[in-house]
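User: structure tokens for this one?
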Amino acid sequence: MTPHTPQTLADIVTETPAAARVLDGFGLDYCCRGDRTLDAACAEAGIASDVVEGKLADLEPGVDIGWTTLTPPALADHIVETHHRYLHQELPLLDALAARVLAAHGERHPELDRVRRLVAALRADLEPHLLKEERVLFPAIHALAGGGPSSRSGRWPTRSA
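Assistant:
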């Protein structure tokens, strides 16, 4: 992702949601102070904007691996390594962000309590689903395709501690 000046921090995150983690890492507030340009926010924080821009540029989407041509076991691996890994990393962060936004703005926006509860419910629904796929469905796909147990011993790494 390459920001187009004078794009605001909020615009950057709206265009590329993964940029939120980069901006958070530099302590740049894209929510309450998201109306600032990247250059202005970096100057205020004493950070070289080219360093942040470099990290944002690393978010460019990768090369399409042609998932439509993958074998079922390779597709299962791709889903776990790409999509499940992303969700295992992002769901706790999204949950924490919803709590932070509620704490900061809930008094003026009581509807944020419902948003917080919906995010928590989404996480509570998705995490067991992901684990069931990783522990039951995808190993079964590997076993059926190979005539035996998965080369991954029936398990993919789940959340890192």
